[in-house]
Amino acid sequence: MKNSGLFFVPQVFSGPSRKRGSLSLSINAIVVLILAITMLGLGLGFMRKSFGGVAGQFEQVTDEMQQEMANRLKGTTQKIAFNAESIRMESSEKKRGVFIGVKNIDADSDTFFISFDCVQQISDSGACDTAEEPDIQWFDNQEIDGGKVEVLPVTIIPQAAKDETYKFTVTVCALSNTAISSVGDCNDLTDDNDVYARNNLFIDIDP
């Protein structure tokens, strides 16, 4: 047998093999992406359901609290009431919500002005320092139908309040009183006969 001097060199066709590898990698990537999107969707759905449930429960508790306060005022001779007349909160809290209920004992509708005045820092036995006392935000006037009760939100913000108990005097005045035209007039009243109702609110700030 003669040797022609030619050697047989096998050819390696890498094209189709590489294509199959790339295709397999692409399919795996797509599967992983689909699974990731599915898990993300399930996670977001769970969080939405959880937080939605908490918000719904909070609203339900708030509504029940307001209704309870309204019923309590209707059954007493009180004209105003808080859901808590002593509030304890941390200085690190951004804000705290409370409620004040006001009852119109007259048959006719009237507008009521509400003022909050810090009158004493208990431990110092002195006047409140306006730079330190908690900030209180509320609706300073509200129209209430005759014989009805309105429960209004009040927001307490510690601000720069230190470790202290602050005593606030809460004064409610009726617009039907000819001496009243604004919440400022309500603040200036000194004669209790001109005041519709008055109560105290204590705010205890912990460090």
List the helices and strands and how they pair.
Blueprint: H1 15-74, E1 80-82, E2 86-90, E3 96-103, E4 110-121, E5 135-138, E6 141-144, E7 149-157, E8 164-174, H2 183-188, E9 197-206
Parallel strand pairs: 2-9
Antiparallel strand pairs: 1-3, 3-7, 4-6, 4-8, 5-7, 8-9
Describe this structure in words.
The chain is α+β, with helices and mostly antiparallel strands and 207 residues long. The protein is built from two helices and nine strands, in the order H-E-E-E-E-E-E-E-E-H-E. The protein has helices spanning 15-74, 183-188, and strands at residues 80-82, 86-90, 96-103, 110-121, 135-138, 141-144, 149-157, 164-174, 197-206. The strands form two sheets. A five-stranded mixed sheet has the order 2-9-8-4-6. A four-stranded antiparallel sheet has the order 1-3-7-5. It is elongated, with a radius of gyration of 35 Å.
Which structural traits does this protein have?
9 strands, Immunoglobulin-like, elongated, 2 domains, 32% helix, 4-stranded antiparallel β-sheet
Measured on Cα atoms, how large is the radius of gyration?
Answer: 35 Å
DSSP summary: helix tally: 2
Q: Could you name the CATH topology of the largest domain? A: Immunoglobulin-like
Widest beta sheet: strand line-up: 2-9-8-4-6
Strand content: 25-35%
What sort of overall outline do the alpha carbons produce when their principal axes are compared? elongated
Gap from first CA to last CA: 105 Å
Q: Helical percent range?
A: 25-40%
Query: Regions with pLDDT < 50 over 5+ consecutive residues?
Result: 50-61
Structural class: alpha+beta
Please write the CATH class name of the largest domain. Mainly Beta
User: Roughly what is the average pLDDT, rounded to an integer?
Assistant: 79
Number of strands: 9
CATH H-level superfamily title of the largest domain: Immunoglobulins
Q: Main beta sheet, described?
A: 5 strands, mixed
Query: In CATH terms, what is the architecture of the largest domain?
Result: Sandwich
Q: What is the helix/strand order?
A: HEEEEEEEEHE
The total tally of domains equals 2
